[in-house]
Amino acid sequence: MPAGNPHAAPGFDHTLIIRAAPARVVAAFFDPDALAIWWQAVRSVTIARAFGVYAIEWRPTEFRDELLGPLGGVFHGTVVDVKPGQEFFVADAWWVPPEGQPIGPMGLDVTCARDGPACRLHVRQYGYEDSARWQRYYEVVDAGWRTSLAALKTYLEGPHT
Q1: Mean pLDDT of successive 10-residue segments in the chain (161 residues)?
Q2: CA nearest 92: which of 49, 57, 127, 119?
Q3: Can you tell me the distance from the alpha carbon of 139 to that of 93, in angstroms, rounded to the nearest whole number?
Q4: Are the beta carbons of 97 and 68 closer than 8 angstroms?
Q5: What distance in Å separates the CA atoms of residue 36 and residue 30, rounded to the nearest whole number?
Q6: Strands 118-126 and 73-83
Q7: Helix, strand or coil for residue 50?
Q8: H/E segment holding residue 75
Q9: Do 26 and 88 touch, CB atoms closer than 8 A?
Q10: In degrees, to the nearest 5, what angle opens at C-alpha 74 toward C-alphas 71 and 77?
Q11: For residue 7, what pLDDT is reported?
Q12: Which residue pairs from 137-146 have beta carbons closer than 8 angstroms and sit at least 24 positions apart in sequence?
């Protein structure tokens, strides 16, 4: 649940400072090689333009969550707004788990603005239905996003980029 508003619907909302140009940070959300490294995607189709596809696939996990089953699967939606090197918005997004019913629709809003020699990345994922599965989904997604965004920071700030 977003800090400061106990009545807000669950979702993911996180800001991170990354020592890289905003264009490089946003590009990492669309580059299949980068997605394989920082988000551990096994396959992706991402098109950075209006009505572009945004689909990321992960291997199913060996462990099973008691409500969601194995994690992994596919997250897909439609890029409806993009400002190259600055921000993009994915609408009508769904998580299709390896087993069980999809969860969605959701929105994914990513913005990146210059902050001195670095940039301020803001990632917000939202959409909600009052159910135990949705609540559990955001508990899992929160931890997953934080780990992945830390990996993105390491990837972009590392010597190999």
Answers
A1: 53 96 97 98 97 98 95 97 96 97 97 94 94 94 95 90 49
A2: 127
A3: 18
A4: yes
A5: 11
A6: unpaired
A7: coil
A8: strand 73-83
A9: yes
A10: 135
A11: 52
A12: 137/68, 137/95, 137/103, 138/10, 138/11, 138/12, 140/65, 140/68, 140/71, 141/12, 142/12, 144/71, 145/12, 145/14, 146/14
Does residue 118 contact residue 20 with C-beta atoms inside 8 Å? yes
State the sign of the Cα–Cα–Cα–Cα dihedral 153, 115, 50, 138.
positive
Q: Which residue from 93, 94, 57 is spatially nearest to 73, judged by alpha carbons?
A: 57
Sign of the dihedral defined by the CA atoms of residues 15, 16, 22, 25, in that order: negative
Contact 2, 86 (CB under 8 A): no
Give dist(CA 126, CA 41) in Å, integer: 21
Question: Tokens representing 153?
Answer: 């920071």
Indicate the pTM of the whole model. 0.91
What does 96-146 look like in DSSP terms, one character per residue? E-SSS--EEEEEEEEEEEEETTEEEEEEEEE---SSHHHHHHHHHHHHHHH
Tell me the C-alpha distance between 81 and 100, whole Å: 30
Query: What gap in Å lies between CA 1 and CA 131, rounded to an integer?
Result: 14
